[in-house]
Amino acid sequence: MSSPHVLILGGGFGGLSAAKALRRRPVQVTLVDRHNYHLFQPLLYQVATAALSPGDIASPIRWIFRRSPNIRVLLAEAASIEADRRRVVLRDGADLAFDFLIVATGASHTYFGHDGWSAYAPGLKTLEDALDIRRRVLLAFERAERESDPVERQTLLTFVLVGGGPTGVELAGTLAEIARQTLRHEFRSIDPAQAKVVLVEAGPTILPAFPEALRHTARASLRRLRVDVREATAVTGIDGAGVMLGSQRLTAGTVLWTAGVAASPLVRSIGAPLDRAGRVLVAPDLSIPGHPEIFVVGDAAAFVDEAGHPLPGVAQVAMQQARHAARAILRRIDGRPSSRFVYRDKGSMAIVGRGAAIADLGWIRFSGFAAWLAWLFLHIVMLVGFRNRLVVLVQWAMAYVTLQRSVRLITNVERHEDRDERTG
Questions:
Q1: Between the N and C ends of the chain, which has fewer C-beta atoms within 10 Å?
Q2: CATH number of the structural domain 5-34+76-109+261-333
Q3: pTM of the entire structure?
Q4: What is the layout of strands, in order, in the sheet containing 100-103?
């Protein structure tokens, strides 16, 4: 009798954790992803701000599972899920049968019904996004150096970030440091320190998941970096000239989207109920109604904890849910019932700038240099592969001592300028 076949869609935190939990178990696993690498998304903004190279935060999936003979890795993109037939149809028309399925396809950007904004305000979810943002940021300073009109020069040196969550806060602080520290003394016609960084949050506060005392600390750190923090301010329009804040126009050369996300559109094909963000309303054990063999985890799943709170879309949620789904599959193979998923919150952290961060670990809350060191240590430990950990550690140490960012390369300028002209 052949071993049960477990199909995992997605090679992010969720898919990787599920596959690791099933290696060397009595199942055959197929892991499908449209990229051949696992991406460490929490450090993606450091690629976007020229601190790290793409290879520093990504690892080939095949290399990760090279010693796991029961795990097969396929480079492909899932187009739809046929739950009743227990098949996944791939984008190229092929299909894959499964006995059990774990959907860990993550999330993508959402512009809340304004998809046209995406051409002017790129989000940050993929390596391609990070390299595009890096190009836009560095080109802004280069173009300002050549601009003789002081008004247009200031427009080029104005950066607006839409969304005050951890990604927006980290990006805003880093952009301010690039302007005031990294690029200092490198230009002759402009003073990079005159760059204006504006962080816009539609809600009442930035970093809403953190306690008020830590939010206040983060807000103060951003203002020390001269970041203009605008809370309770909704963006009503984005175009090539900047953003509309209500009826007020804010001209800006670069607008970045760090606001909402929506579940991967693939999950709609399952036929299960969805929430407003397009996430699957899963059962307590993370399976879907009517199909106990299909599990949805991470950003693609809408799960409410025992206190009635929806779980955040962070890596630790995806990893814990994926491991739970793997255990549930093994229990069902043994003829035992699955159990309810219980989330164990290990805390949250956000870095605000060089030597500044906030940390809420539940049992302790702290900020400043100690939180910054804790943030660095945690992210180095979580990286996949010794080589990546060592390289990132060295890069961060050099950046801290020299205030420099080693990957300030502007690539594919002609191709992107052609595209920008078409969208403009």
A1: N
A2: 3.50.50.60
A3: 0.91
A4: 71-75, 28-33, 5-9, 100-103, 291-296, 287-288
